[in-house]
Amino acid sequence: MPTALLHGGxxxxxxxxxxxxxRTQLSANSLTPFVDPLPIPEIARPSGFRPSPADxxxxxxxxxxxxxxxxxxxxxxxxxTRLWGYGGPLQGPTSPGPTFETRSGQGLLVEWVNELPxxxxxxxxxxxxxxxxxxxxxxxxxxxxxxxxxPGSDGYPESWFVSGKSGVCHYPNQQDAAMLWYHxxxxxxxxxxxxxxxxxAFFVRDEFEDSLELPRxxxxxxxxxxxxxxxxxxxLNYPVSPDAQKPWVAEVFGDAxxxxxxxxxxxxxxxxAYRFRVLNGANGRFLHLSLSDGHKLxxxxxxxxxxxxxxxxxxxxxxxxxxxxxxxxxxxxxGRNVALKNDIQAVLQFRVAKAxxxxxxxxxxxxxxxxxxxxxxxxxxSAVKTRSLTLVEVDDLKQRPLTxxxxxxxxxxxxxxxxxxxxxxxxxxxxxxxxxxxxxxxxVRFQILxxxxxxxxxxxMKGTVRYTGPAVAPDANEAGWKDTVRADPGxxxxxxxxxxxxxGRYVWHCHILEHEDNEMMRPFDVVAAR
Length: 530
Ligand SMILES: [Cu+2]
Description:
Blueprint: E1 48-51, E2 59-72, E3 81-87, E4 100-103, E5 108-114, E6 142-145, E7 166-171, E8 178-184, H1 190-196, E9 199-205, H2 207-211, E10 220-228, E11 256-259, E12 262-263, E13 266-269, E14 273-280, E15 287-291, E16 297-302, E17 305-313, E18 316-318, E19 323-329, E20 337-342, E21 345-352, E22 383-395, E23 401-406, E24 424-431, E25 437-441, E26 446-453, H3 456-462, E27 484-487, E28 491-498, E29 504-510, H4 513-517, E30 521-526
Parallel strand pairs: 2-5, 4-9, 10-14, 13-21, 22-24
Antiparallel strand pairs: 1-2, 2-3, 5-7, 6-8, 8-9, 10-11, 11-12, 14-19, 15-18, 15-20, 16-17, 16-19, 20-21, 22-23, 24-28, 25-27, 25-29, 26-28, 29-30
Copper (II) ion binds near residues 404, 437, 510, 515 and 520.
């Protein structure tokens, strides 16, 4: 089974800072595929117990997780790559970082410690808000994506801290079983910090999920996927624009798709059902995943937990920030190799052992429960407010993107979205751009109502939405609890949200990190009812 993750050694500091230029790109397809086993991130280990901020009589597990620079092998035939990762006192650092395992209602405390170098090794654009030249180069703050977290622990983008400092976050985890993930969220350099490796998985479990007897233990495998660009020395090669004074680029698409931090790994599996917890952790790439032999993927859960019923898919479409809970049945594939493909590229090979008497035949996915977890629909009539919110790209005279905006407002402008705690709202995401944007709201889970084409030119001329087609229901595998939604181009995407949990300041943003960093993020205030 899998090996340990990319481990840091004695090279956590003292590396040269690269000049901000784009070097000759390695062609990832020139590498020999399937020579490295799929790494499985270690489970994070607490180092003790500390009083809960909510009730000092309650002691919560306390984790101390440091961010550090290290060198890791992403492929057998590449030199070690400089990366930033997370690690505990006796672990790592690794990228992805250690996986958190917890149960619904079991709160925990994490002290996130910045032990990164003082210089960034990826190209900062000082024109971007929050990343001006007078700001420290290396800043970090951690957000638990999908967590129902008090505002002071949510990783507000301006709450960054520098090397040598730390911040303690309280995660109450009062929410359904789901795959969450943690990643950096520092204002103006988030895209670079995540590209450098600052992300990891976080699982919440509960009794309902237990009762379904899904594959677990070594039969449940996280697949944390993201694309990168490497240079010929095996180093991360973040692209820059032709203008040296303005290095920001609007999108980054790499040809090297890593799974749990490895390029083209393999996983030895038994001829039985496995559960794969897939995260699209890419900066900007949308994934289109399928199995090479045409077998279907059974999707049983989405961002915020189990679907009402399994959905059979030929191909899974997953936007940055989204998660999919999959079951794959290898029971009829004994002795064969099957690849998980993104588009036409095989990114992970499953080596299915021959069926023998020695291997217990577990319940095949054809015997998956036909119903999983009820997802009660939020009625539109329960919404007390509907907000129409535009997604806008601002171009220069040569039609090159300058910035991306939500509702034509910049990050630093006064808060305009201020839902009342425990109220329900409909948010209409009016996408006037040519691109799909995965929109993520912190704190909450929501449901997708529909998507509908509208006339964008009309919208710019008259400021009103004229629909040009019927409302389209969300795909079957989107009809669960979500925290990130694909807002497709030229469409109004409607979501219905109950603002539960905590009053306070949060953010909503595009999860294409290049967009988020360049203004496609806004604060919102959940206001306590009077
Ligand atoms: Cu975007």
